[in-house]
Automatic annotation (TrEMBL):
GO terms for biological process: protein folding. It comes from the Bacteria. This is Foldase protein PrsA. Keywords: Cell membrane, Isomerase, Lipoprotein, Membrane, Palmitate, Rotamase, Signal. Residues 285-324 are annotated as: Disordered. Belongs to the PrsA family. InterPro entries: Foldase_PrsA (IPR023059), PPIase_dom_sf (IPR046357), PPIase_PpiC (IPR000297), PrsA_foldase (IPR050245), Trigger_fact/SurA_dom_sf (IPR027304). It is found in: Cell membrane. The gene is prsA.
Length: 324
């Protein structure tokens, strides 16, 4: 899932912001805490960000909720759960970062609603598509064996030259736990791997293997090219190119804010609580370039997805480099 422009204040999940009463929220020998008192305290701390989230989600759901169904959200949740090493590991990661399954699904839903909005409001010019096509390199599928020392890598290359099975050696010897179980196979596009790995891989033809170990910060790789497709025509690759351009758009918090602001300005938003009256100002009035940059940086840092640590799950050494 993509980073969001908006902060998700999960501490308020399930709390109805509008509408207060004198009902007791908690009590002790010191007295009672009423809903009014609780509301006022929470409003001062996270009220603005939560109101932003609720309004934006409500407006976007009205336009794109038919595409972001519970089934779609559950599917995305299951995918992330699997990527982070299964239910137990994922639950542990969410717990560390203050999420429950329900509050994290709310985050997924908002992510997907924003993605649908950006898709709907973004049109790419022919010039943009052509430029992206000219730079496009189709993803390739290779297999690799990652070991910690050069001597071991050279010994494995000798075995491979003598007829050993690459997939079998990868499963038995590779320290890349993410790819070893499937014989070391990995599919990637240009720019997703560490430079040393990528340069060596793209230099190979289909069926070829590196004759010397390829050193990187992760160890020593032996690489075999499995599938290296040719780039299709512009017409054939247009959908792929548009997907890449959209992915870049969704990684740009300023571009996301521009889209959301346009939608919010057409939504006739009224805020009755005078203390929160400015909550949507960033979206209802054109922001200066400086303020937009500062806000984007602040909001981006506040909307990180759960990040797996080494104790919860081990990612592919090569794949991790793509995120750096």
């Amino acid at each position: 899932m993509k980073k969001l422009l908006l902060a998700t204040a999960t501490i308020l999940a399930g709390l109805t912001i509008a509408g207060c009463s004198d009902s007791t929220v908690a009590s002790s020998t010191a007295g009672k805490i009423t809903e009014d008192e609780f509301y006022e305290a929470m409003k001062e701390t996270v009220g603005t960000s939560m109101l932003q989230q609720l309004i934006i989600e409500d407006v976007l759901d009205d336009s794109y909720g038919d595409k972001v169904t519970d089934e779609v959200v559950d599917k995305q949740y299951s995918t992330e759960e699997e990527n982070y090493g299964g239910a137990e590991a994922f639950e542990y990661i969410m717990l560390q970062q203050g999420y429950t399954a329900d509050s994290y699904k709310d985050t997924i839903r908002l992510n997907l609603l924003i993605e649908e909005a950006v898709k709907d409001k973004t049109k790419f010019t022919e010039e943009e598509i052509q430029a992206a096509y000219d730079a496009y390199v189709p993803p390739v599928t290779a297999a690799h064996i990652l070991v910690e020392d050069e001597e071991t890598a050279k010994d494995l290359i000798t075995q491979l030259n003598d007829g050993a099975d690459f997939a079998k050696l990868a499963t038995e010897n590779s320290v890349d736990t993410a790819t070893a179980p499937n014989g070391g196979e990995i599919t990637f596009a240009s720019g997703e791997m560490v430079p040393e790995f990528e340069e060596a891989a793209y230099a190979l033809k289909e069926g070829e293997m590196t004759t010397e170990p390829v050193a990187s910060e992760y160890g020593f790789h032996i690489i075999k090219m499995i599938e290296k497709p040719e780039k299709g025509t512009l017409e054939e690759e247009t959908d792929t190119i548009k997907d890449q351009l959209l992915t870049a758009k969704l990684a740009d918090s300023a571009a996301i804010q521009e889209v959301i602001s346009g939608i919010m300005q057409d939504a006739n938003i009224l805020i009755d609580d005078k203390d929160l009256a400015t909550a949507m100002d960033a979206y209802l009035a054109p922001a200066t370039e400086e303020s937009a940059t500062e806000e984007s940086a602040t909001e981006e840092s506040a909307t990180e997805e759960p990040a797996a640590d080494s104790s919860a799950t081990e990612e592919s050494a090569v794949e991790e480099s793509a995120a750096e």
